[in-house]
Amino acid sequence: MKTVDTEQIYRDYVRSQTRQRWYVFGTQVGLFALFLALWEWTARMGWINVLIFSYPSKVWNLFWEKLLDGSLLPHVFATVLETIVGFLLGTILGTLIAILIWWSPFLSRVLDPYLVIANSMPKVALGPLFIVGLGPGLLSIIGMACSVSIIITTLVVYTSFKEVDQNYIKVVRTFGASKRQMFSLVILPATMPTIISTLKVNVGLSWIGVIVGEFLVSKQGLGYLIVYGFQVFNFTLVMVSLVVVAVVATLMYQAVAYLERKLTTQFK
Q1: The model's pTM
Q2: CA distance 236 to 221
Q3: Closest C-alpha among 211, 238, 218 to residue 62
Q4: Which of 62, 83, 175, 215 makes a 20 to 30 Å CA pair with 261?
C-alpha cells in the first residue's frame, strides 16, 4: 500500500500559497505602475489638463520639496493623531454601548429606532454642531471621526451579540451562570472575531471623519492642505495630500489587519 507523505503535501501547499501571494502582489504592483505611466504619458501629451490632474513626476517633486523643508510632516502628524484618537474612541464607545444595550432588553427596545435614525443620518451634517458645541479645533475634529464610526460599531457588535448560538447560552444557564458570567464565558469569546473585524472598518471611517472635520475647521492637517490647495489653485498640492492620505491610511489598515490576525489566532 502506498504511503502518503503528509509533510510533503503540506510543503507543496505552502509553496503554492506563497507563489499565489507573490503573483497577486506582482499584479497589483504592475497595475499601479501602468496607471502611473499612463497618467504621466497622457499629461505629457496634453491629453489631460495638467492644471487640474497634474502628473506623477510633478507630484513626486512637490512631495519631496515639502518633506525636505519640513512643512509636510506636521500636517501628517496632526491628521494621524486625530484619526487614532477618533478611531479608538469610536471603537471603544461603540462596543460599550452595544454591551449596555445587550445587557438591558428594555433599553434595546427603547434605543432601537434611534440607532436606526442615527445610522441613516449623514454625519457630515453634524459638523456645524460639533463646531458650536466643542469649538473650532481638535475636539470637534475628533468628535466628527468618533461620530462616523460609533454607530456602525454599536450596530455591528450588538447584532453579533444577538446571533450567538442560543444552545451555548442554554448550557451556561443550566449550570446557574449569572448574566455577567454568560457574557464573559459565551457572548464575548463568540463575538470577539466580529469585534476585531470592525477595527478595519473603523480605520477607514475615522479617516473620513477626520478629513471632513479638517475641511471645516482645521488650520493644520492633510484635510486642510487639500482645501488650501483648491483655494490657491495648486492642484498638485491637492494630489500630494491625497497620495499621503492613501499611503498613511493603508499603513494604518495593514497594522490593524496584523493585529486582527494575532488576536483572532488567540481567540480560536
Answers
A1: 0.83
A2: 16
A3: 238
A4: 83
